């Protein structure tokens, strides 16, 4: 575009950056999700606050280093706030409801509410002990770490990009789900815009009342947009199917349905004591039939994929680093349960177990393997006019 | 290629048909322009081509529509997707994916094209529409013009034989609009694509059309013919046609070039009567000679403008960063009472950001903004609303209530004005909007006027409008212009950000051109637009070197 030519010279650095060849394609989104979920798995293995904090810091560092410049990439902070809220709620519950942890160090005593007989076993108020609080803190931290890991996955790879890797037969369902998911971020953007518009009307643009008053217009707008999007998708060929002979269609149905039934029967067999012999083979046969059904169903869709994400060496490294963290912590939780789950009775200062901590640091690998595409995703002289 | 046979469409619950008696044949490779005032059913006709009417919208379609031999009654929109590409009015609601490149590929993926073909076509389309620099960008971060080009690109990649476009250029700056239109022209010439498009800004498109289909009024049968003959009877027409009618030229010229060749006589008659002294009629307040703050030594001297009249707004060395992007850098601007200023420039040049800074929606990262003597981003909303009012690009954002009456009552309460102020203003602006109607059901023009009345209820000395004529037909525009002139005459300062050069010529005393977030020109309208090829209105181009801006001026001079 002609406008790139900049007489001012102030932007002289910009063309070099924007015209830089696209050096590396983005990482496979599956790799990010595996990495993040593995970190989450690792978080469930421990209640050691130091390890959990280290895990969260690891994910935060990687997100800061790797996230692309896109609106959805900002969801990390939202998840962080959510995690904080969960932690606070957990602590409040522990204070109000107490917990079965036998504690001796009473910090304060809340007035206890007398409950009727049928509510025996529930206590409201009463003494709050340091042990109770600490246990709640550990538990809450574990949940928070899990949430933060999911948030990291969300901001590193948009769930929509995972769609590209879905089998053809499931694609359309997937699109529907993703469109439903993008409803929420659009809603938030609308709320921000309309609250700003309230300022133009001379009304305060903060506060709960402001939020409530823009509620209806926001919902209306979001609904209208969804309908418009559905029309656009329809006109662009979404849901076009190939003609398949009725025989193939029937076979697909039988295979999928039969396969799912087989999976149920097989699982039942595995779980009941009597069916130990037929359980596994039936389960395997069911899975195979269901997969065949999916594959055959894929014939009905014409879809092809444009530049599918490649599962390359970087993706393997990223997913592998996450898996390594999870594996090491699982191993550690078996070998050294004391260090990973510090007791609260009696109160002890949790110590940082050395080699599990080192293992967590393995999760930093993606920051070096696949740093942010920032230099090309955020070109300086964009002529943006957010409306 | 497209054939309408006695088509009428009635939506569910509507008292009468939205369109009826449509008989229209568009042969292959033709560019047909659909024109008519707002609300005559242009979008209905367009959507009937892609099958969205009636498959998606509901309603009853009588008659028959065939596209490339396929009857839309038996083919759903998705089964027409390989022959028809449709772009609606709002590109943002058209996007399915979230990055430019994926969006271009989406339609092809649905049609099941081979990966190698897709790759090639995406690259071709990126070049064709000048999007190569944006290929990795998220769609949410694009400016309006960029979005429109991506939307057109996304339906071009499957190589449809028919392209249907609803107002493709109304959100674009003149240069970007020309870019898009020349792409369409190339598709028609080189690929034999059939194009059917509706557009309000006729001055941009009419010369590209092979034929024009005019829907004169709601429910009336279309008039189809060559552009010149249809323009002769059309209730909507561009300035060049207006000038042609005034001068009695026949056949009517449609392009500036044709008009210039005829205009020798007219120029003679007008000779000596032009000069810059001819000002937009009805703007009695001479532009106050505001001393342009000169930064001779790099810094503005404090207290410099104290000698002049009290300014409605003053911006000094303003720098604003939005989303890590410098949207404005070192902008200086003074707005005097009674003055009308048009902010012009490319999409994304920073016009909206400057307006937002003037009402305090964004705070400055450097420099100062004073609106009516206060810093707008720090002022409380109640205080600010009496100093400055902004009608945003989407006037609906301002409206919350479910009836016009409730909206007006709320506006009075917000502004602390006497009850009935807003309603009286609205009736003064456009008579005949009933109290009970929902703001959503108003036409674009009526909704804009309602938003304007809401803003004016607080009598702000400074009135800002962001793209006020987007989606307005000529009649609504003709109504808006005297209205804004009257406000300026009362002493309101008016600043409008617009791509509409005809509007700016009609209305503005001063034009400020922005580029890359900097002010590149600031001066009287006549001086600025006359010297600019892309911002000059049609009348100026036709009558150059004389300096006329609007048909109204010419008519007055001849009278």
From TrEMBL, chain A:
Major place of residence: membrane
Gene Ontology CC, one term: plasma membrane
Species, as recorded: Streptomyces zinciresistens K42
InterPro entries reported for this sequence: ABC/ECF_trnsptr_transmembrane
Protein name: Putative integral membrane protein
Compartmental location: Membrane
Coiled-coil parts of chain: none
Entry keyword set: Membrane, Transmembrane, Transmembrane helix
Keyword check for Membrane: yes
Pfam families with a match to the protein in the record: CbiQ
Topology relative to the membrane: Multi-pass membrane protein
Region feature (Disordered): 1-24
Spans traversing the lipid bilayer: 27-44, 78-98, 169-189, 254-271, 277-296, 317-334, 354-373
From TrEMBL, chain B:
Topological type in the membrane: Peripheral membrane protein
Classification via PROSITE patterns: ABC_TRANSPORTER_1, ABC_TRANSPORTER_2
Signal peptide (residue range): none
Taxonomy, superkingdom: Bacteria
Subcellular localization, as worded in the UniProt entry: Cell membrane
GO CC entries: ATP-binding cassette (ABC) transporter complex
Gene3D superfamilies: P-loop containing nucleotide triphosphate hydrolases
SMART domains named among the record's database cross-references: AAA
InterPro entries for this protein: AAA+_ATPase, ABC_transporter-like_ATP-bd, ABC_transporter-like_CS, ABC_transpr_CbiO/EcfA_su, ECF_ABC_transporter_ATP-bd, P-loop_NTPase
GO molecular function: ATP binding; ATP hydrolysis activity; ATPase-coupled transmembrane transporter activity
The ABC transporter domain, residue ranges: 2-243, 313-541
Location of region: Disordered: 275-305
Keywords: ATP-binding, Cell membrane, Membrane, Nucleotide-binding, Repeat, Translocase, Transport
Similarity annotation: Belongs to the ABC transporter superfamily.
Function of the molecule: Probably part of an ABC transporter complex. Responsible for energy coupling to the transport system.
Protein name, as recorded: ABC transporter ATP-binding subunit
Organism: Streptomyces zinciresistens K42
């Amino acid at each position: 575009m002609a406008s790139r030519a900049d007489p001012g010279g102030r932007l002289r650095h910009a063309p070099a950056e924007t015209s830089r060849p696209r050096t590396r394609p983005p990482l496979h989104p599956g790799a990010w999700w595996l990495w993040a979920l593995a970190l989450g798995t690792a978080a469930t293995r421990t209640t050691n606050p130091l390890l959990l904090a280290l895990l969260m810091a690891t994910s935060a560092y990687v997100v800061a280093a790797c996230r692309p410049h896109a609106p959805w990439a900002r969801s990390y902070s939202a998840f962080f706030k959510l995690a904080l809220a969960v932690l606070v709620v957990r602590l409040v519950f522990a204070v109000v409801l107490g917990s079965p942890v036998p504690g001796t160090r009473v910090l304060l005593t809340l007035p206890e509410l007398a409950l009727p007989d049928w509510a025996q076993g529930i206590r409201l108020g009463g003494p709050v002990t340091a042990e109770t609080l600490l246990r709640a803190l550990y538990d809450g931290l574990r949940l928070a770490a899990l949430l933060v890991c999911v948030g990291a996955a969300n901001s590193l790879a948009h769930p929509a990009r995972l769609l590209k890797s879905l089998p053809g037969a499931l694609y359309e369902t997937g699109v529907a789900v993703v469109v439903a998911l993008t409803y929420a971020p659009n809603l938030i953007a609308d709320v921000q815009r309309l609250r700003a518009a309230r300022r133009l009307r001379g009304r305060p643009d903060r506060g709960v009342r402001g939020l409530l008053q823009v509620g209806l217009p926001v919902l209306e707008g979001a609904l209208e947009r969804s309908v418009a999007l559905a029309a656009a998708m329809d006109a662009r060929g979404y849901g076009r199917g190939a003609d398949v002979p009725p025989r193939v269609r029937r076979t697909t149905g039988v295979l999928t349905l039969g396969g799912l039934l087989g999976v149920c029967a097989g699982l039942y067999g595995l779980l009941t004591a009597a069916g130990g012999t037929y359980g596994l083979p039936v389960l395997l046969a069911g899975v195979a039939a269901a997969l065949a059904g999916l594959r055959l169903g894929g014939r009905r869709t014409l879809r092809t994929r444009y530049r599918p994400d490649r599962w390359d060496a970087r993706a393997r490294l990223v997913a592998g680093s996450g898996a390594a963290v999870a594996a090491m912590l699982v191993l550690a939780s078996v070998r050294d349960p004391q260090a990973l789950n510090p007791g609260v009775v009696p109160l002890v200062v949790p110590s940082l177990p050395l080699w599990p901590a080192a293992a967590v640091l393995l999760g930093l690998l993606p920051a070096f393997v696949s740093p942010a595409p920032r230099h090309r995703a955020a070109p300086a002289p964009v002529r943006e006019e957010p409306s | 290629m497209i054939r309408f046979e006695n088509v009428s469409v009635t939506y569910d619950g509507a008292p009468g048909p939205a369109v009826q008696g449509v008989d229209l044949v568009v042969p292959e490779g033709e560019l047909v322009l659909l024109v008519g005032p707002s609300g005559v059913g242009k979008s209905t006709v367009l959507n009937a081509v892609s099958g969205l009417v009636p498959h998606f919208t509901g309603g009853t379609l009588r008659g028959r529509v065939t596209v490339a031999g396929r009857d839309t009654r038996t083919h759903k929109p998705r089964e027409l997707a390989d022959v028809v590409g449709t772009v609606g009015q709002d590109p943002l609601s058209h996007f399915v994916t979230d990055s430019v490149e994926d969006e271009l590929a989406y339609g092809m993926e649905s049609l099941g094209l081979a990966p190698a073909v897709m790759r090639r076509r995406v690259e071709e389309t990126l070049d064709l529409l000048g999007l190569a620099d944006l290929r990795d960008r998220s769609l949410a971060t694009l400016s309006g013009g960029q979005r429109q080009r991506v939307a057109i690109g996304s339906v071009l990649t499957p190589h449809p034989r028919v392209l249907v476009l609803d107002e493709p250029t109304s959100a674009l700056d003149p240069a970007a609009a020309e870019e898009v239109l020349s792409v369409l022209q190339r598709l028609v010439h080189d690929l034999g694509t059939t194009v059917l498009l509706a557009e309000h800004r006729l001055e941009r498109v009419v010369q590209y059309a092979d034929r024009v289909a005019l829907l004169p009024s709601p429910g009336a049968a279309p008039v189809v013919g060559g552009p010149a003959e249809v323009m002769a009877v059309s209730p909507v027409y561009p300035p060049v046609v207006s000038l042609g009618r005034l001068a009695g030229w026949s056949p009517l010229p449609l392009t500036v070039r044709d008009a210039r060749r005829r205009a020798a006589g007219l120029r003679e008659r007008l000779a000596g009567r032009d000069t810059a002294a001819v000002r937009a009629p009805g703007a009695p307040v001479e532009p106050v000679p505001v001393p342009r703050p000169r930064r001779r030594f790099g810094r503005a001297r404090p207290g410099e403008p104290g000698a002049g009249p009290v300014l409605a707004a003053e911006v000094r060395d303003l720098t604003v960063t939005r989303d890590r992007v410098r949207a404005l850098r070192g902008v200086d601007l003074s707005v005097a009472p009674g003055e009308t200023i048009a902010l012009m420039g490319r999409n994304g040049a920073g016009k909206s950001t400057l307006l937002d800074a003037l009402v305090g929606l964004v705070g400055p990262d450097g420099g100062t903004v004073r609106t009516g003597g206060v810093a707008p981003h720090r002022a409380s909303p109640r205080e600010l609303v009496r100093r400055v009012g902004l009608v945003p690009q989407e006037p609906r954002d301002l409206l919350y209530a479910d009836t016009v009456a409730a909206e007006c009552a709320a506006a009075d309460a917000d502004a602390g004005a006497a009850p009935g102020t807003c309603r009286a203003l609205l009736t003064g602006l456009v008579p005949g909007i009933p109290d009970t109607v929902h703001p959503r059901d108003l036409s674009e023009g009526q909704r804009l006027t309602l938003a304007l009345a809401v803003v004016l209820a607080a009598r702000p000395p400074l009135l800002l409008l962001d793209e006020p004529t987007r989606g307005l037909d000529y009649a609504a525009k003709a109504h808006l212009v005297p209205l804004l002139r009257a406000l300026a005459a009362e002493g309101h300062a008016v600043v409008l950000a617009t791509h509409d050069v005809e509007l700016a010529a009609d209305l503005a005393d001063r034009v400020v051109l922005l580029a890359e977030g900097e002010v590149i020109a600031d001066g009287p309208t006549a001086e600025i637009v006359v010297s600019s090829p892309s911002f000059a209105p049609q009348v100026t181009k036709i009558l150059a070197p004389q300096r006329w801006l609007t048909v109204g001026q010419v008519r007055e001079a001849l009278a």
